[in-house]
Amino acid sequence: MAPELAPEMVPNSTLELAPDPAPDLAARIRHAIDTKTKPPGSLGRIEDLAAQIALLQGTLTPRMERAQLTIFAGDHGIAAEGVSAFPQAVTAQMVLNFLGGGAAANVFARTAGVALRVVDAGVAAELAHPELIVRKIAPGTANSAHGPAMTAAQCERARAAGAALGADGHADAVCFGEMGIANTAAATLVAHKITGRPVAELTGRGTGLDDGGLRRKTEVLQRAAGRTGALTPADALAEYGGFEIAMMAGAMAAAARARRLVIVDGFIASAAALVVLTEAPKLRGAMVFAHASAEAGHRAVLAHLRAEPLLSLGMRLGEGTGALLAWPLVRAAAAMLTDMASFDDAGVSRGL
């Protein structure tokens, strides 16, 4: 028998959850949820989330005890076109802020008891810190307004590096965040090429562009999109993505194949999930979409994926912050199924 391929070596078109659970497990999970001490359906989306987690773990008694957030950071050549309100130097500065524990993601992670790690996927600066995971593909991508953001080989290297990080550890659930000035521009172009939705519909204010800045950003992205015709998801990622987005895609796919729950954050993370799920739809059962962000393109990507996020808080920060806020809901859903008494257990009479 041929040896099993490592997650980063499996062709993207064949990625699936494995092994499959017992054929009748879904029915048994639903029966277990419906016979808890509550009216059927009274916990709404939490019941659906519990069923998804139980099916993913292949058990009637799922556990969600540990989560991990990995923040991937990378710079983008298209920042030179003025598509962000912030200078590119902020990417490196924010990486150091993450490592110092001062960002929103750090605060939310500490509050939720979630481990956090930071990865240099392609920051345009040389950073030294004992806790920084360095997987730098290059010091930022090329300017995708004029040519491919990265080569196909660079894209594959980034996805493989992400897959290795997504497959390691023992967390029950994983969150992936990002930092990279101009990465909403990259996510917009990737989403445009995969969904076919107009660039203008997908383009948002990112770091807070005013009306003039938004018009300029839209014009730049429309010009960049016009360089190429129809693309596969992998080609769209290489032409227009970022090293941090490619690493997130690799990490999500590998974590999903390992039957870890992937809590998908906002627009940038959802663009990475869009690549993965377009290539491998069967991984959908491992993904929970945390929130609907205020970024223009995010709701369009969610609609394309037919994904209903758990939260809608008007957020647009990234960093995995929305995924962290969804983690308590995930834990509660699993605990409901595992720890809540049934009518028979509690001796409670059922309704007619």
From TrEMBL:
Matching InterPro entries: Nict_dMeBzImd_PRibTrfase (IPR003200), Nict_dMeBzImd_PRibTrfase_bact (IPR017846), Nict_dMeBzImd_PRibTrfase_N (IPR023195), Nict_dMeBzImd_PRibTrfase_sf (IPR036087)
EC number: 2.4.2.21
Any one GO biological process: cobalamin biosynthetic process
Gene3D superfamilies: 1.10.1610.10, 3.40.50.10210
Catalytic residues (positions): 319
Record's keyword annotation contains Glycosyltransferase: yes
Top-tier EC class: transferase
Pfam assignment, any one: DBI_PRT
Coiled coil: none
Pathway the protein contributes to: Nucleoside biosynthesis; alpha-ribazole biosynthesis; alpha-ribazole from 5,6-dimethylbenzimidazole: step 1/2
Keyword tags: Cobalamin biosynthesis, Glycosyltransferase, Transferase
PANTHER family listed in its UniProt record: NICOTINATE-NUCLEOTIDE--DIMETHYLBENZIMIDAZOLE PHOSPHORIBOSYLTRANSFERASE (PTHR43463)
Function: Catalyzes the synthesis of alpha-ribazole-5'-phosphate from nicotinate mononucleotide (NAMN) and 5,6-dimethylbenzimidazole (DMB).
Family, per entry: Belongs to the CobT family.
Protein name (database record): Nicotinate-nucleotide--dimethylbenzimidazole phosphoribosyltransferase
Origin species: Halovulum marinum
Taxonomic lineage: Bacteria, Pseudomonadati, Pseudomonadota, Alphaproteobacteria, Rhodobacterales
Name of encoding gene: cobT
